Structure formats: C-alpha cells, structure tokens
DNA sequence: TAGATTGTTAATCGATTAACAATC
DNA sequence: TAGATTGTTAATCGATTAACAATC
C-alpha cells in the first residue's frame, strides 16, 4: 500500500474484504499457513486469482510454503486501512441509522470502526442514546466534525435530503460517504462514495429468482 | 422475463435497477421520451452501454425518437420481476431486521415488495409488532412459508446461525435469500443469494479514503 | 424528405485464467 | 535434494466502447 499503490482495479479491491474474512476465520481455527490452492477451494475462486490479487500489493507468500495466515491477515487489514482509527458518524437516526449504530459486525474494536455520534433533525430523537451513542442536533454537525476530525459519514436519511447534506459534509471535511440513500451523490474527486442501495440489491434478487423459475419451466 | 432470456451477464443485471430508478425520476418529472445519449449524460455512463444493455431484452426504442419513458420503466420493472407479487419474510428480528421491516424504499406497493412476517427465537420479541408486521416464533416458520408460499427471505441473524437456517429455509421452498449475515451460504443451484455484506462494503470505503489520501500526499 | 437515433457488428479494453520458470 | 508453491508472463475470455447501416 502507501503512496505507490497505483491503478489497482476496483474488482480487486472489492475482493479484499472477503479474503480478510476468510483469513480471520482460519486464524480463529488456529490454522497458521495456507496455500493459494487450498484457499481457492474454500473460497470457490481460482488460485490464480488469489495470487494475482495479492501480488498487486506485494509478495506475501513464500514458494513451496504458501502464505502465513496471521501475517496475511494483518497485511490485508493494513491495505484496507483497518489499522488506522476509523471513527464515523451516522447522519439520520431513523430505523436504519439506529440499526447501524447497534451493528456489531463492524462497530467494535477488532476492525477499528467506531460510531461516535448520530445526527438528526427530529427533536424527539435528539438527546436519546443508541447503543451508548448520543443523537445530536444536525445543526451541531459542522462543529462536531471539525472538532473530532471525522472522515467517514454514513448517510441514512431521506433521498431528497441526501445530496444537499452530503455536499455540506464534504465541505466540512468528510472524505468517505457510506450512502444508504437511493440517490447518486455528486461530490468532489477527493471524496469517496460507497453506495449501499438496498432496494436495488433486492431487485437483482427478484430478477434472479424469476429468471431461474423460467429456466426450470423449460427444463434448462 | 419469459423463458428465453439466456446468459445475460450479471454486470447487466446489476445495472437494471439503476436504470429503473432514473426512469422513475424522469416519469415523476413528466418527461415522456429520452434518448440513450441524454440518459447517458444524466447517469454518467456511455450511450452505447445503455443501448447494449437494453437490447439484451428487446428493442424498446425507436430510431430517430429514442425511448418512451413510461414504457421503458414498465418493461424494466417486468424484467426485474416487480410486476409479480414479492412477499417476503425477515428472519432475525434484531435491529437490522426491524429496520428493514420499516424501510420504506422498497417495502411499499409501488415496487411490489411486502414484508409479511418477522421471525426470531427471542421470547421477548415474539408477538411484538413492527410497522404493522408481527414477530413470530421461528418454530412456526416452516408452516408459515408453506401456507403463504413465500419465496424470499431476508437473513438478518447472527453469522453462526445463518448457514443452517438458510438450508432449512431452502428445503421449505425459499428461492431467494437476501443475506445480511457475514458468511457465504452454500445452497442448491435452484436458489439465489444476494449478499449485503455491510462490514465489507465499509472496508472498501476505508481503502479508498486512505489510498486517496496517499495519492494526494505525493501530489498525484 | 432530412435529421435523429436506434440496434447491432466490430474494435478495444480490461479482467481472469493458465502456464511455468524461479525459488523456498 | 526433491517437492511444493509462489510470482509473473502469456493466453483467453468477457465486457465496454466505437462505429455505422438501418429506419423511424
């Protein structure tokens, strides 16, 4: 990683967290080494792809041996930026925002993400505490972001408010948006957006269900 | 749609819901026709890609005119299976499951998805109502699925329980899983899984944030 | 009709897989 | 050492973009 990681394809980046998850599971089973071949069988990808992917970032393996699980786990964590402090805020303290604040899969020390505040306009929500995290008035957001040097914001607010608020957040220093609003955000190039478009993912599911049904009908 | 849609690439399928969203927005603005060129500018993709994608499913356009917005919206809806009844259950009535039950983006009549039951093992949750939907005992799930002919299940339960329960659900007739558990499900080919791996999507976000920082440091 | 824009074929680009020499 | 497995180059495959004849 560091300053020379150029032109890594998005396809590779998207696979890294999955490698990280499998390596974490191997580690938990006290498995200390693994070859690309064995990992490929567990993950149902080609060994070639694993080696190609990893070699974008460095030679983590050893000929005749394979990869050291613990080492590779740590290295991929570093590549993903999980060794850095990743404090985040959640903008929109409705059901989804609150669910994310409670979500244990990432909101724990082991992978370094920490939700430190929720924000909302609704006076009924302001002041309540969700999983030990307070809901603040959205008007206090600028000061909070600047004081705490927050770089990551989850957007769990209505579609019509998201673009305007995202623009403000970017101007206050937010560098990465985890966007749950069903809208495409247009922001400066220095800012990253990761979309989680739930309705859209559900639609691809129904497509697949129905197209499979049709294929079965025709005996394919 | 229909039985002859063969070998459509997943890349194309993933783009369909986004077309659908843009067409819905155009419709709401009372725009009745659009060319692939104009749509491409709005969506920031190439016009060529739009035409290629749509022509996998049929010639919806007209030379010299473009596409009729309303018609194309309806057709893509059909392709995605949104014209069919899409009743679903949510397995796991924790924070995330409850948030999904409340989620208005898809859980409304306009796109045909309907959450009709939540299930959980926790006696404290069983019997409560979330957004008008009751939390049932997970032991009643088999009967419920069979009686209501449910085809879609959202899995919002702990990682260690997901694979076993998914297998049971598949044996009871579930054809599509919307999987929020951070684990890969191994299921028969007749079953579709759409993964929403939140922790993993957050990791790709941090990768992008940090790699962009690095590039700025070196003035690239 | 003339102009616009599609549907579709061909060219390019990028990503995946295969192969194998290097080497632990 | 001999066997195993990587790192990396070359071959293949698939997806995207460009071009243009067809046609509304």
**What is the C-level CATH assignment of the largest domain in chain A?**
Alpha Beta
CATH fold-level topology of the largest domain in chain A: Rossmann fold
Shape of chain A: globular
Largest interface: A-B, 68 and 68 residues
Output the CATH homologous superfamily of the largest domain in chain A. NAD(P)-binding Rossmann-like Domain
Strand order of the largest sheet of chain A: 6-7-5-4-8-9-10
Series of secondary-structure elements of chain A, N-terminal to C-terminal: HEHHEEHEHEEEHEHEEH
Tell how many strands the DSSP assignment of chain A holds.
10
Indicate the low-confidence ranges of chain A by residue numbers.
Answer: 1-5
Oligomer: homodimer
> Which architecture name of the largest domain in chain A does CATH use?
3-Layer(aba) Sandwich
Give the overall average pLDDT of chain A.
92
Question: How do the helices and strands line up, and which of them pair or pack?
Answer:
Two copies of one chain form a homodimer.
Chain A: H1 10-28, E1 33-34, H2 36-43, H3 47-55, E2 61-62, E3 66-68, H4 69-80, E4 86-91, H5 95-102, E5 113-120, E6 129-130, E7 133-137, H6 141-148, E8 152-155, H7 162-171, E9 176-179, E10 192-195, H8 198-217
Parallel strand pairs in A: 4-5, 4-8, 5-7, 8-9, 9-10
Antiparallel strand pairs in A: 1-3, 2-3, 6-7
Helix pairs in contact in A: 1-4, 2-3
Chain A binds a DNA duplex (24 and 24 nucleotides) through residues 9, 11-12, 35-37, 46-49, 51-52, 54-55, 59, 61-67.
